[in-house]
Amino acid sequence: MKAFLAIVSRDLRLALRQGGDILTLVLFFVIVGVLMPFAVGPDRPLLAQLAPAIIWVAALLAQLLSNDRLFRTDFEDGSLAVFRHAALPLEAVVAAKLVAHWLLTGLPLIVAMPILALMLGLDAERFWLAAASLGLGTPALAAFGAIGAAVTVGLKRGGLVAPVLVLPLSLPVLIFGAGAFDVARLGGSSQALLLLAALSLLSIALAPFAAALALRISGE
Amino acid sequence: MAQTQPKPAEPGWFTRIAHPGMFMGWTRHIVWPLATITAIAFVIGLYFSFFASPADYQMGDTVRMMYVHVPTAWLSQFCYAVMFCSAIGTLVWRHPMADVSQKAAAPLGAAFTALALFTGSMWGRPTWGTFWEWDGRMTSTLVLLFIYLGLIALWRAFDDQLKAARIVAVLTLVGAINIPIIKFSVDWWQTLHQPASVFRADGPTMDGSMLAPLLIMTVAFSLLFLTLHLVRMRTEVTKRRIRSLELAQARAAGGAA
Description:
Number of strands of chain A: 0
Largest sheet of chain B: none
Oligomer: heterodimer
Number of strands of chain B: 0
């Protein structure tokens, strides 16, 4: 457990001391969200209706963009090779990195979400729904992103392949995440939120194994 | 197994079939007969589906689209099952033929999925009044197509095909969660696409006059898949041999210089 926390705090420290990464991520998230009113037109009722979808698409794209650096720097500077021979199994290392990754890419999005919610005119009730669905859904996005990042870590031009691989897998997250707002279709938002939570728990439990397997193969 | 015995035993039937050299040997003789049987099955199936089966009392002649749509849709999922089994073979036994089978199946699966979507939308237009509807089965089949294309892209991104096989295998296993979603999508979300009517616990809900051409066409398309899969596997083995010969030649030329 100590080693697990050490890896989490190492990743957090590395990202925070380098600086700028979180700010860029949040900026990207807000800009993608702001892009939509320009594309759709400044129609406030329509935007308020589309707000959950816009927030979710922006979050998905922002997380997709940040997935590549989950393993790449460690792979290039050789830390990953050291992790493979650590006392901690590689699966646990991946899980620790996943936790740090979510704190660095999932949490800032939830914190930045009120800005978008305000600009898109999301009402108070659906605001809390958006916070809940992002909170429950972003861990699953991070988990699928980890699989994609692990699979493409050995590729020099993996930057474009990983999103293509990850997007179809993360569609269910988007469906249930944005579906939490659509009470009529899924019969109550609590059901969609429960499914989202189940998806997150399942993917977080299984992703470290798949990602560690891919990392082992890539490291050979 | 052979490893536990002190001296190398006689290779088992599976080893004999799956050894690349042997594989090339025994498949050489069955590609043409298999292709012929496939052609005959298609002739019979097309005759039945165009002439010897009745038009639907509601859909009219458009029902004949079913004889192409259902087999391709079934193969789009079967192909993934083949890739899934091959992926396990790659990861567990590191069998070279499993790699080859995996690689050969991916473009076929993508083609059959695209065909199923295309024929489905052609069929949907006259019967449902729309080319495309965002219902569970269509969406999940579209996701399957994206997964196939992503896997092909991943294959092509790697230079080292041995490593690529094992990496792609990991992703194939992850992507397999989509298959049960497709299968049960018509039961979970009661939308436009009709529920299962052939493989049911209480027997098919289709008349024999339509079921017969459907089954013949399914067999024909499955044979087509088998033939193409074998041919692609043979091509891949030959390609790898040529590549290793070229590498050896280049190495020899480099050594001489």
